[in-house]
């Protein structure tokens, strides 16, 4: 049963753009935003004068050392003289940006919205890791000297303990995604590696090794979102936004069930209800699941109810999540392969599902026919889930 | 129809180092003074005395540690201060070979989330001593009962670090 909500407009994505994802790019954040936004508009056959409003997504200001990052990015994102909104939910921002674009159009307030996500992590010196140190509680947590990898290692190890998961089954995710990324035009770390390579890579915080982690990146991504009557006029293959969901848990992560991301489930349930999806494992044909660490792809597949608890590693081992499998996960190459410019990485996942549903993913096109796809992101202090369900027109 | 495959040339100019392009460097120093607030101020004062204190919500019956003046689930004021034994079980643990800023550690550090007994789910994140990295790697430490080891009274300053670390409770100490 579809959720009984009274929307003014059905919303479609009709264009998408991306820049290269790299450790360091010469371009400024605005120049990257401009490149992605222009590509998205051109692919939709639209001009900036057609755009009613702009939504911008970018993660912590501290990466760039520029406050009011949304306002800073506005001109490069096509926002001059228009209603502009910047949204931010940490790593979840990249999928939250088109969610905000969706409500701008669904509400009837606007017909054409440009949603732009940009991240440049390279300016933070000596390493963006030093900026991540500011996400913890300053009084109770920072005196312990946490490293971002610690908390993910703690979560990963709890997940492995609870379901008796072997490290090699987690490493398969990294192998798959880096291989998929070889066919992605933006990819920073496409590579042919083996499970042994992952298991032999530098041990950082047991059980997390270097090849379990996505890289630090610069990059931008954008999509054009329009109301149904515009979509019908400008394209034969709109991709409809069928469901959106988001959910936030508290920052008190030490009191949480670390083996299962309940907040992702809450976000997914909201999106599935809106899209009329009752059996996600059957009804979702392809998914881009947030994978800043290899175990997170598995964790999130379970939170999204695409796999039963503890069983995502089995699906991965059996090849079901490969591009030619029954449930392809991260055919783009994900954050592990394409790169992780925070907000842009989440939006990259939305562009991948858009291209997959239009049959435009080239060598990355999954083997089975796909009608319904999902993109999900996650972030903040392991506490937010953002989900979007798309369907081919 | 387009093919968005690896042959598409996307915009962006990769650079290996900043000296390959015009780069302007400037550092900003930001210094803050955070008030610890109603709940955490008392928590810190008690830590200095070598005691662990939480706030109880009489509706959901949880004891919140670190304490909060409100219960975020019931969305009501918490009811009372309550001392708890600084004893818990290891929920998860890891072995860190790197520092906060990713430099190599000479002696690996063990970090754990400890579920404080009798609180109904409150956890603290702290160092674990008295176990080997192997005990973490083979997951022997999961579910292990541990207790806080305090700094000597004269060295305590009203900080989470007044607890030096947690150590396993050996058989003879069981209450």
Overall description:
The complex is a heterodimer of chains A (393) and B (175). Chain A is α/β, with parallel strands linked by helices. Chain A has a single domain, classed as Thiolase/Chalcone synthase (Peroxisomal Thiolase, Chain A, domain 1, 3-Layer(aba) Sandwich), CATH 3.40.47. Chain A is built from 14 helices and eleven strands. Chain B has helices at residues 37-48, 133-137; strands at residues 52-56, 63-64, 70-71, 76-77, 80-84, 87-98, 104-116, 123-127, 145-150, 163-168. In chain B, strand 6 and strand 7 (104-116) form a beta hairpin. The longest helix of chain B is centred in the N-terminal third of the chain and has 12 residues, at 37-48. Chain B starts with 36 loop residues before the first helix and ends in a 7-residue tail after the last strand. The mean pLDDT of chain B is 94. Strand 5 (203-206) of chain A pairs antiparallel with strand 6 of chain B.
The biggest sheet of chain A amounts to:
9 strands, mixed
CATH T-level fold name of chain A: Peroxisomal Thiolase, Chain A, domain 1
> Helix-strand pattern of chain B, N to C?
HEEEEEEEEHEE
Q: Indicate the low-confidence ranges of chain B by residue numbers.
A: none
What structural category arises from helix and sheet content of chain B? mainly beta
Q: Write the H/E string of chain A, N to C.
A: EHEHEHEHHHHEEEHEHHEHHHHEE
Q: Tell me the β content of chain A.
A: 15-25%
Provide the low-confidence segments of chain A as ranges.
none
Mean pLDDT of chain B: 94
Number of strands of chain B: 10
Task: Spell out the CATH superfamily of chain A.
Answer: Thiolase/Chalcone synthase
CATH architecture of chain A: 3-Layer(aba) Sandwich
Beta percentage of chain B is 25-35%
Helix run count of chain B: 2
Q: Give me the count of strands of chain A.
A: 11
- Report the helical percentage of chain B: under 10%
Give me the secondary-structure category of chain A.
Answer: alpha/beta
Which pair has the most extensive contact? A-B, 69 and 61 residues
- What value does the Rg of chain B take, in angstroms? 23 Å
Helix content of chain A: 25-40%
Name the strands of the widest sheet of chain B in spatial order. Answer: 8-7-6-9-10
């Amino acid at each position: 049963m579809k959720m009984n909500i009274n929307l003014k407009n059905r919303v479609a994505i009709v264009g998408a753009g991306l820049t290269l994802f790299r450790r360091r790019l010469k371009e400024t954040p605005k120049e990257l935003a401009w490149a992605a936004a222009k590509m998205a508009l051109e692919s939709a056959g639209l001009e900036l004068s057609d755009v009613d409003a702009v939504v911008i997504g970018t993660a912590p200001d501290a990466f760039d050392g520029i406050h009011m990052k949304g306002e800073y990015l506005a001109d490069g994102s096509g926002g001059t003289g228009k209603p502009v909104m910047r949204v931010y939910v940490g790593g979840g921002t990249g999928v939250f940006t088109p969610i905000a674009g969706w409500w701008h159009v669904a509400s009837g307030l606007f017909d054409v919205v440009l949603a732009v996500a940009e991240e440049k992590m390279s300016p933070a010196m000596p390493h963006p890791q030093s900026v991540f140190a500011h996400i913890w509680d300053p009084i109770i947590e920072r005196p312990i000297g946490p490293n971002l990898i610690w908390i993910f290692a703690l979560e990963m190890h709890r997940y492995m303990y609870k379901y008796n998961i072997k490290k090699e089954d987690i490493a398969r995710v990294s192998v798959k995604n880096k291989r998929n990324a070889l066919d992605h035009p933006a990819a920073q770390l496409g590579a042919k590696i083996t499970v042994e390579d992952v298991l032999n890579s530098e041990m950082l915080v047991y059980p997390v090794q270097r090849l379990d982690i996505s890289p630090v990146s610069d990059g931008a991504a954008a999509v054009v979102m329009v109301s149904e009557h515009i979509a019908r006029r400008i394209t034969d293959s709109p991709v409809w936004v069928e469901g959106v969901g988001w959910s936030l848990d508290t920052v008190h992560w030490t009191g949480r069930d670390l083996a299962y991301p309940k907040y992702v489930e809450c976000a997914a349930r909201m999106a599935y209800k809106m899209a009329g999806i009752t059996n996600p494992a059957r009804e979702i044909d392809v998914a881009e699941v947030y994978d800043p660490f290899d175990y997170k792809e598995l964790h999130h597949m379970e939170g999204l109810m695409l796999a039963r608890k503890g069983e995502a590693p089995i699906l991965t081992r059996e090849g079901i999540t490969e591009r030619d499998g029954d449930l392809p996960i991260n055919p783009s190459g994900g954050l592990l392969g394409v790169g992780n410019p925070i907000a842009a990485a989440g939006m990259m996942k939305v562009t991948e599902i858009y291209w997959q549903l239009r049959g435009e993913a080239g060598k990355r096109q999954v083997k089975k026919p796909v009608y319904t796809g999902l993109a999900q992101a996650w972030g903040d202090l392991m506490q937010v889930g953002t989900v979007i369900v798309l369907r081919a027109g | 129809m387009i093919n968005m495959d690896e042959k598409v040339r996307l915009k962006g100019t990769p650079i290996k180092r900043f000296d390959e392009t015009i780069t302007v460097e400037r550092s900003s120093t930001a210094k803050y003074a955070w008030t610890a607030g109603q709940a955490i101020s008392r928590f810190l004062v008690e830590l200095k005395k070598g005691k662990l204190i939480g706030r109880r919500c009489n509706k959901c019956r949880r004891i919140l540690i670190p304490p909060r003046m409100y219960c975020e689930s019931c969305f009501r004021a918490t009811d009372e201060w309550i001392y708890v034994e600084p004893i818990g079980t290891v929920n998860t643990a890891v072995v860190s070979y790197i520092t906060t800023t990713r430099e190599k550690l000479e002696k690996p550090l063990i970090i754990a989330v400890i579920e404080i007994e009798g609180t109904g789910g409150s956890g603290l994140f702290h160092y674990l001593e008295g176990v080997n990295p192997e005990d973490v790697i083979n997951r022997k430490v999961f579910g292990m009962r541990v207790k806080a080891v305090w700094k000597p009274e004269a060295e305590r300053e009203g900080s989470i670090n007044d607890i030096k670390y947690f150590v396993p409770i050996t058989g003879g100490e069981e209450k």
